């Protein structure tokens, strides 16, 4: 009874307070059909011994060279067609729209965390408050998207095609008038590759320096483990080619830089927002040439200074190299010294 008497009070209070920006968000499922050749990924991961051997191969000094080739054996001769029902969150009603692609060992929660006090970290709400609509999604294999095969489906060029399909969705079904792609880390590579194929109005890259020279400390420091044995309750349904970090501290090493973060945020990320990535994703990215010079849209590269995967822990003196990569862009701006990992 008390509850019923309280409802009008809550209703009045809700009207008096400004609505949180997220009120205008809804979770949706978007079927996307892609047709691209697939790499033949030869890595076969059954247990953490295999993962440790692969980590060694991917991080040794001459990785990717003749003595230690990528675990790939060419490509399928024909395109392979697949339809994936992508789990997404759409906020706003169109107009200028941001399409967000998260990185590996992340999910779309990266952009819109939901722990108490997370407002200051909520990129989606900040963007909505500035008048943008926002489409964020889980990459195939992640979170609310289908648990695709880790070798044959979860590949870079397939994910680029998925993003292109989502941009088409934004323009044709979600009333987007302009589209900017925003990526984090692996999602920055996906966003860049999409922007070489389709017309977009802006490209924002974070966790990105344009070089893989400093990839080894990231791969080694991640302390990769097979996700389904690492956490059967969360990930028991994934095949054994899905990998995650060994523990909270490995994850803190690759994503956060002390003293510029709250431990509770790293704990939330590890326990809630992080999702495994698929082993097919890395060699397919490394084997793809992205024609950065074809990108015409304005580009913003926004970097925490102490990023491990992009810069080996110090972006100053590395991210300036992006001006030699985006030679066709109308504008390139970079920020290399935000106090963050
Ligand atoms: C690592 O590379 C060696 C050859 O140098 C190869 O025999 C082995 O299968 C590779 N391991 C994995 C897990 O890819
Ligand atoms: C970036 O900055 C570093 C350090 O100042 C310098 O050595 C390097 O040549 C610069 N790279 C480019 C492409 O300008």
Write the layout of secondary structure elements.
Blueprint: H1 2-16, E1 25-36, E2 39-41, H2 48-59, E3 72-75, E4 80-91, E5 95-101, H3 123-129, E6 133-137, H4 156-173, E7 176-184, H5 186-197, E8 202-206, H6 215-221, E9 225-226, H7 227-230, H8 232-235, E10 242-244, H9 248-255, H10 263-273, E11 277-278, H11 281-286, E12 299-304, H12 308-311, E13 332-338
Parallel strand pairs: 5-6, 5-7, 7-8, 8-12, 12-13
Antiparallel strand pairs: 1-4, 2-3, 4-6, 9-10, 10-11
Helix pairs in contact: 2-6, 4-5, 9-10
Structural class by SSE content: alpha/beta
Largest sheet, spatial ordering of strands: 1-4-6-5-7-8-12-13
Q: What is the H/E order?
A: HEEHEEEHEHEHEHEHHEHHEHEHE
Mean pLDDT: 93
CATH class: Alpha Beta
Helix content: 25-40%
When the domains are counted, the total is 1
Task: Give the biggest beta sheet.
Answer: 8 strands, mixed
Query: Which spans of ≥5 residues are poorly predicted at pLDDT below 50?
Result: 1-17
- C-alpha Rg (nearest Å): 20 Å
Q: Between the first and last Cα atoms, what is the distance in angstroms?
A: 51 Å
Protein name: AB hydrolase-1 domain-containing protein
Organism: Hypocrea virens (strain Gv29-8 / FGSC 10586)
Signal peptide: 1-23
Keywords: Signal
Describe this structure in words.
Helices cover 32% and strands 23% of the residues. The chain is of the alpha/beta class and 341 residues long. It has a single domain, classed as Alpha/Beta hydrolase fold, catalytic domain (Rossmann fold), CATH 3.40.50. Helix 12 links the parallel strand 12 and strand 13. The site of one 2-acetamido-2-deoxy-beta-D-glucopyranose has 7 residues, from helix 2.
């Amino acid at each position: 009874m008390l509850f019923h008497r309280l409802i009008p009070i809550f209703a009045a209070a809700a009207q008096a307070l400004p609505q949180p920006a997220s009120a205008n968000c809804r979770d949706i499922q978007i079927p996307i059909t892609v047709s691209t050749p697939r790499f033949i990924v030869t890595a076969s991961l059954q247990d953490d011994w295999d993962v440790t051997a692969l980590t060694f191969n991917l991080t040794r000094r001459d990785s990717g060279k003749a003595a230690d080739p990528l675990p790939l054996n060419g490509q399928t001769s024909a395109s392979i067609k697949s339809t994936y029902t992508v789990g997404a969150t759409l906020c706003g009603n169109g107009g200028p729209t941001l399409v967000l692609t998260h990185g590996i060992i992340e999910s779309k929660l990266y952009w819109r965390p939901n722990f108490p006090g997370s407002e200051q970290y909520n990129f989606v709400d900040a963007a909505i408050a500035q008048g943008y609509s926002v489409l964020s999604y889980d990459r195939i294999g992640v979170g609310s998207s289908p648990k695709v095969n880790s070798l044959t489906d979860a590949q870079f060029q397939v994910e680029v095609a998925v993003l292109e399909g989502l941009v088409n969705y934004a323009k044709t079904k979600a009333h987007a008038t302009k589209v900017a792609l925003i990526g984090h880390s692996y999602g920055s590579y996906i966003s860049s590759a999409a922007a070489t194929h389709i017309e977009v109005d802006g490209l924002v890259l974070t966790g990105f320096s344009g070089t893989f020279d400093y990839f080894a400390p990231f791969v080694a420091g991640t302390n990769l483990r097979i996700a389904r044995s690492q956490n059967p309750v969360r990930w028991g349904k994934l095949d054994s080619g899905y990998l995650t970090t060994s523990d909270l501290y490995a994850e803190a090493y690759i994503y956060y830089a002390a003293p510029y973060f709250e431990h509770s945020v790293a704990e939330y990320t590890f326990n809630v927002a992080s999702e495994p990535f698929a082993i097919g994703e890395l060699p397919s990215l490394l084997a793809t040439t992205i024609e950065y010079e074809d990108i015409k849209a304005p580009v913003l590269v926004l970097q925490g200074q102490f990023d491990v995967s992009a810069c080996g822990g110090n972006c100053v003196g590395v991210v300036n190299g992006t001006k030699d990569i985006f030679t066709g862009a109308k504008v390139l701006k970079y920020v290399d010294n935000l106090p963050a990992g």
